[in-house]
Amino acid sequence: MLKILVTGATGNVGQEVLSLLQSHDCNICAGVRNSNNAKHLLGNNIQCVPFDFTDPDTFDHAFFEVNKLFLVRPPALANIPTQVAPALNAAKLAGVEHIVFLSILGSKHNRFLPHSQIERYINQLGIKATFLRASFFMQNLNTTHREDIKVHSELLLPAGNGKTSFIDVRDIAAVAVRTLIEDGHQGRAYPLTGKASFSWCSRHWLRFVPLYASFGQL
Predict the structure, then answer these.
(1) For strand 3-6 and strand 27-32, is the pairing parallel, antiparallel, or unpaired?
(2) Which of 25-39, 119-133, 165-179, 198-212 has the lowest mean pLDDT?
(3) Cβ distance 30 to 48 under 8 Å?
């Protein structure tokens, strides 16, 4: 049976990926740093295995008999050669056949991004991969930016006149699961965005408010 290890399992995308994978005939493992906390969040139906990018002692058990890996870079880890590459080396040695990596829109053109460095390193290792280059998460508006919107009614970001496309993490997860379960996605990179782009100017946000109202009251 296909065995899939999901990293970033307690994050917003990882949880959705795990939820969708449960309807497929595969062995699912959630790679987590704290199994007790993860069980409380994910429930008892998800098998949790200890995994920490910065702890090589967790690699062998986490990657044991894993065929496919859903890879999410922890935001705090930016030094790819020392903090992420060792885990990828272990994945290759363990026989992982396919990595689906949650990357970021624009990584192809900005080689300094940690996501771009990870993409290149995976390619150097020779592991078959699919890169999901996602745009700004819709859910950031009622998590990371929730207080700014609620308290100050504004978002202060160095965006200038640039525009951003937003995407629901549930849509990212749906694509991720298809690339993990289906054949034919190896060696592909998919840009994942919403249907429209919005500037960060206040007059445009009046059109955008209804789109994220369903994610929770501000």
Answers:
(1) parallel
(2) 198-212
(3) yes
Q: DSSP label at 78?
A: -
Q: Which amino acid is at 168?
A: D
C-alpha 216, offset from chain centre: 21
Beta strand segments in the chain, E: 3-6, 27-32, 47-50, 68-71, 98-104, 128-134, 136-137, 163-167, 188-192, 197-199
Q: How far from 163 is each of 41, 108, 159, 187, 199, CA to CA, in Å?
A: 34, 18, 8, 29, 4
- Residue 177 CA: distances (Å) to CA of 6, 67, 199: 11, 14, 30
pLDDT bin (cut points 50, 70, 90) of residue 136 is confident
Res 214 pLDDT > 50: no
Which pTM was predicted? 0.87
Average predicted confidence (pLDDT) for the chain: 88
Domains for the chain: give ranges and CATH numbers: 3-136+166-193 (3.40.50.720)
pLDDT score of 121 more than 90: yes
| Section 46-61 average pLDDT | 96
Are the C-beta atoms of 15 and 42 separated by less than 8 Å?
A: yes
Dist. CA 15–CA 182, nearest whole Å: 20
